Amino acid sequence: MEIIEKKLNKRERHKAALSPFQYYPQIETLDFNGISEGDGFYLQDFGIFNVPIEEEEYTLRLRITAGRINAVQLRAIAEIVKQNSLEVILTARAGMQLHGLNSENVLNIFKQINLLGISTWQTFGDNVRNIVTDVYDGVGSTSVIETYPLIMQMQDYFLKTPHLVGMLPRRISTGISGNGANVSSFFANDLYFALAKKEEIFGFNVYMGGKNTEIARSSDIFLLPEEVVSFFKAFIEAFNKHGSRFARSRTRLFYLLEEIGMETFLEYVAHEYQHSWQNAGDLVLEKELFSRYQQLKDGSYAFCYESNFGRIDVEELIAIADFAETHSAHVRLSTDHNIYLLGLSQPSAPFEHLKKSQTVVACAGSHYCPYSFWNIKDDAQMLPLEKINEHRIQIGISGCAKGCGRHQHCDIGLIGLRTNNFGNADKGSRIYLGAEHSAGLSVGRELFEMVPLEHVRSVLDLIIYEYEQSGLDTFESFSTQILNRYSIEFIALCLLETLKNGSTIAFYAMDTLENIREEDRFMVEKELFIRCFSTTDSITLMKDNFNDAIRQISKKLWSVGVSDQEIAPEIKKLLVSKKYWEV
Q1: Gap between the Cα atoms of 59 and 101, Å rounded
Q2: Which residues fall within 8 angstroms of residue 324, CB to CB, at 6 or more apart?
Q3: If residue 517 lies in a helix (H) or strand (E), which one and from where to where?
Q4: pLDDT of residue 370
């Protein structure tokens, strides 16, 4: 036993000494002025945490079940925020975080929030996190099965089971949707119940092992709605018993499935479930672009109140609560960091539409998180928001490689980093492109390892211009039908060459490169590049791959002292003519 315990990671050693449920009564007498490392681990299980940025400040994470909150609760939260000079951000799991608590008020605010009927339990740490669903659950025009009753049953199970509180090997993120079209993709979850149909009966296909950088895989299981809760319980118990508790970096479900295989893990689940299940049905999930106003299946309307990339101030919360109460509207939070008002008689609401953030998911950023290199919620302003909003392009921005902005599960993804690749150390961005995310087919590919922040706009402008030239209805279709025909290195080099020399190129008009052998791809794409850019000196840099040419052109374009104003004149003129470039 001693040998095994030495291998347990630090969190597991705390759990072995005292479970979070046993620890909980100590919160009443805890001195929040000087908590220990162990206290910090335990407090996370009840939604309380602090970060190295401001060790004396605390954050409280709120579990907004299925994103549903009423006007009374919203106004009460706003009053607590106002009285204590707190900040609010909306989370990617359709919840809230209150920032700026201190050692004197954290326990009292914790109690006040939980008395509102809003739990903070198990919103952090090694727990089942807030179960997410589509914001139009039960009311959307494509809604088939309302999942809220199932979510309530699942939540009731893990919140009231002492041996699960903070005791899982790692967090479990769960998504479930009974809609045929979702506002956001749920394939980044560890467990996803997706609307499906088998023999004319609707139910759910089960996907497992997703995370911010991976797509959840089919487990080849179809469940009827009445089977979901029992299966969920069996899944949680199986993961709790068989998940790894050693190297912390490999404790997510993804790594367990990688190590033992889906089949073996499903044997563990079957042992807990003790019922049979059917093989997967047909996934019912279509791509849809959602507007600010959306008509619901009963003829009423929903309105998307766009937050400031997840930030929202107390006066906004009060105004939303007042409007919802006056118009008998339902309030829902979504995984896209916005607030939705449902049940409006007309497609109108007295709120300004200036933020253009509905399709942009941005992580907490350096103001709130020690891992982030960017102040994401401010730096997101540098994006071409007009075009992103016009085309409903889904953007994900993460402040680090942990990927809280789901940058690989969207049309265009960015990771905010710091770089000295081009001279002075400064902000830069890794850019991802081409995810087929709506149906969980693939994550985005890394287009550029690093682009200085001041040049990100020109790169995105050109990518969006190429999309516009294609004439396709959605950016995801552009990825599927055009971009993903080519290697990501070829796409990167073509974009760089265009920015450098102004020799415009349209990917949609290029040769189709389907059904070629991977070992022949480089030579075929090289010939295509030479035909498109016949006079460029980049050709001499190509030997066995495009990487040398990409590095050389990147250095030339993005070194210190070169700005976006020095972009190739022909390209700048083209973008200006399309009202792209803001000089």
Answers
A1: 6
A2: 70, 71, 74, 330, 331, 341
A3: none
A4: 81
Q: Which residues contact 545 (CB under 8 A, 6 or more apart)?
A: 489, 522
543 is a domain residue: yes
Please state, in angstroms and rounded to a whole number, the distance separating the CA atoms of residues 99 and 24.
22
Contact yes or no for 305/320 (Cβ under 8 A): yes
Where residue 475 sits, what CATH number does that domain have?
3.30.413.10
Domain count, the chain: 1
Tabulate helix, strand, coil % of the chain (nearest 5).
Answer: 40, 20, 40
Hey, which residues does 418 pair with through a beta bridge? 427
Tokens of 177: 């949707």
The answer to whether the CB of 9 falls within 8 A of the CB of 245 is: yes
Q: Quick check: is 339 in a domain?
A: no
Q: Tokens for 336, please give them.
A: 């896209």
Residue-wise burial string across 5-35, b where 16 or more C-beta atoms lie within 10 A, e elsewhere: eeeebebbebbeeebbbebbeebeebebeeb
Around Cβ 370, how many Cβ atoms within 10 Å?
11
- Domain of 469 in residue numbering reads as 360-577
- State which amino acid sits at residue 380: A
| CB count in 10 Å sphere of residue 60 | 25
Q: What is the pLDDT of residue 579?
A: 41
- Please name the amino acid found at residue 532: C
Q: What is the DSSP string of 17-31?
A: HS-HHHHGGGGGG--
CA triplet 367, 363, 361: central angle to 5 degrees?
135
- In one-letter notation, the amino acid at residue 92 is A
pLDDT in tens, 402-446: 899 999 999 999 999 887 766 666 889 999 999 999 999 999 999
538 is a domain residue: yes
Q: Checking DSSP bridges between strand 293-295 and strand 301-305, what pairing results, if any? A: antiparallel
Cα–Cα nearest to 181, from 292, 305, 289: 289
pLDDT confidence of residue 421: 67
Determine the longest span between alpha carbons in the chain, in angstroms: 75
Report residues of the chain scoring pLDDT below 70: 1-6, 52-55, 353-354, 421-425, 503-504, 560-583
CA angle 66, 70, 72 (to 5 degrees): 145
- Any idea which residue has 């849809």 for tokens? 288
The tokens describing 452, both together, are 């200085």
| Torsions phi, psi for 294 (to 5 deg) | -130, 130
Q: What single DSSP character describes residue 128?
A: B
C-alpha closest to that of 505 among 470, 552, 549: 470
Q: Give the whole-angstrom CA distance, residue 431 versus residue 413.
A: 6
Pairing of strands 174-177, 191-198: parallel
Q: Which tokens hold the place of 96?
A: 């809230």
- Residue 414 belongs to a domain: yes
- Counting every residue written for the chain, the total comes to 583
- The DSSP bridge partners found for residue 60 are 48, 98
Rounded to an integer, what distance in angstroms lies between the CA atom of residue 532 and that of residue 572? 19
Pairing between β-strand 191-198 and β-strand 360-362 as defined by DSSP bridges: unpaired
Cβ neighbors of 449 (< 8 A, separation 6 or more) are 430
- Asked if 320 and 306 touch (Cβ cutoff 8 Å), the reply is no
Three-class SS string for 155-185? HHHHHCCHHHCCCCCCCECEEEECECCCCCC
């909306």: which residue's tokens? 90
Q: Which amino acid is at 347?
A: P
